[in-house]
Amino acid sequence: MEYFCYISRSKIDQLFQDVSPDVDRWVERESKESRTESKVDAGLSLGSIIKLFGGGITYGRKGVIQREKEIKVRYRDKLRAVLVGLAKKAPIPSFETGAERSIFDSPYYVYKGDFTVSSPVPSGTPSETVVTLESHIRSYTLLLDCSLRFFSEGNEPDDTFHIHSGNARFFSGSMDLALETVFMFLRRDGTNVYGTPLYLKLDPAGDHSTSGIDRTL
Fold this sequence. Notes:
Elements: E1 4-7, H1 9-16, H2 23-31, E2 43-44, H3 46-54, H4 69-87, E3 92-93, H5 95-101, E4 108-117, E5 125-126, E6 130-137, E7 140-147, E8 160-161, H6 168-172, E9 177-189, E10 192-202
Parallel strand pairs: 7-10
Antiparallel strand pairs: 1-10, 2-3, 4-6, 4-9, 5-8, 6-7, 9-10
Helix pairs in contact: 1-4
């Protein structure tokens, strides 16, 4: 099941202010010309974004009771507008290409890979806590800082984060997950690259973790 398990609401709010109000009309006009971009390319193009949202992808799992359901729908739509705005001039480049060339000169990158939690997250951790996810590609370690409160599940009314059977192994750091992201590049320090994600999407096509686990983020 594909869904956004994380959307950084604060970053999306900031970026959404710069999005053209006619983004939907622009997408409708340009989508026909972008059909040839439906194949996999080096970055996230307009065609890729149209395809991503064309299947009715949600922020949080389908078929379960979601807290803040209407808010999540709104942020999914705002994320779409922001991604279109970022990709209007040129596709968002691939982090893999940057790692291959050892050149990181874009403010945003798209990446698919296996991520683990750098430090275990105990149940009851305050939702405002920032956790770091890490992934390894070539000689680089990608480190993405995420606020627990923006994950689609786990946040409780008392502003703590709940660890349960569906997410315990991931948040303990003992299991990795295949995730897709567009992230904001912050800096590079040797072989460490630091960023913060606009979104994280579960990538079941690339998920080779233990089958049968109900992965709920």
